[in-house]
Amino acid sequence: MSLAPDIRPAPVSLADAFWYWLKLGFISFGGPAGQIALMHTELVEKRRWISEQRFLHALNYCMLLPGPEATQLAVYIGWLMHKARGGIMAGVLFVLPSLLLLMLLSWIYLAYGSMPVVAGILYGIKPAIVAIVLAAAWRIGTRSLKNRTLVGIAIAAFLAIAVFKLPFPLIVLAAAVIGALGGRLLPAHFQVGGKHAGSHASYGLALIDDDTPTPEHASFTWRRLARVGAAWAVLGLGAWLLIAQQFGAAGTLAQMGWFFTKAAMMTFGGAYAVLPYVYQGGVEHYQWLTAAQMIDGLALGETTPGPLIMIVAFVGFMGAGTAGALVAAYFTFLPSFIFILAGGPLVESTRDNVRMTAPLTAISAAVVGVIVSLAVFFGKHVFLAGAQPDWVAIAISAGACVALFRYQAGTIKLIAACALAGLVLSYWHG
After folding, report:
1. pLDDT over threshold 70, residue 352
2. Banded pLDDT at 353 (limits 50, 70, 90)
3. Cα–Cα distance between 168 and 160 in angstroms, integer?
4. CB–CB of 129/295 below 8 Å?
5. Across 137-152, average pLDDT
6. What mean pLDDT comes out for the span 42-50?
7. Residue 162, C-beta contacts closer than 8 angstroms, at least 6 positions apart
8. For residue 25, is it within any domain?
9. Domain residues for 350?
10. What is the DSSP letter of 145?
């Protein structure tokens, strides 16, 4: 697909874009970093649909929003190229394969999860998940904790959720308040962290280049904002009211719609950051699934392409079958589409204003502490599930940590290796 650098690519049809986004949905393994890298390689370097600078500009905007940033980046680029229909198409195709695969795996898990083969595979994957969560905390921490103030916020968040059992929304709110005050009193301590550094290299003329004017449909107008807001009211509130009418406002599906909408609004820092909140609601409050099933679901989620936050489909499936999975995914991802279609120009205009971004910087710091608490929680249930510590699981997790931190092993290869190890060990001991 590479073109001569001095030749601008031909306009891309909606059909060509359709096949690219569908392909991406099936191959987007490796979490947000891997998914963003895939898009950069294909869209910036090879196809040159968008320039390096415009790609990074879009990415930095998406990182300021709650929700899965890779999904939002796909929506953003699709929207920039083909208006609202292009953004919706890109986002749906990016997440659809993950949703369908996870629903299939959820059914297999319920039907055959007690079989020795499946149990052995999960036995090897679950210790790897502890290592993967720790690696996520390290990755976000090195990006977000730029000074002692932010490190202190991360430690306080860890203690708040792990020791004092405070709810995740309260921790996010407290961090936002601290950031808002800090942005005024100590602005140097709350400079925006987490921007993806780039060389702004030129790979040749791009279809949407650095000097390409912003298309009319991407310009901010109050009328357009009101129109998208009205669509959100119909698609969000209207869908929830329909579910409540059909199945009862206190029914499981209505509860899921409201709960996962709230979860979507607090997904700062990626899926690992919001998983403690999903655990608190899905396991402790609503009891849609058990703690052990939650860990198994995360293990399954790591084996599928697409955003890891799709783990909500597993939670929904455990609580209400196929309908629960669809409701959980719908209400989790709907805000991401609305944020891009409605707020792009408005948010971009304020992203370099420290007073506007300081609350998000503080939230990003708190997220690191929350993710570490998630690793501790998983470790407790994986390593200390029986009367004695499971030293084999500890050894698998330690090996996975070495592979991730020392050799930067890919997530899929790591999970496959640990699954094989778990299968062999389960038959050996069985």
Report:
1. no
2. low
3. 9
4. yes
5. 86
6. 89
7. 373, 376, 377
8. no
9. 115-193+225-429
10. -
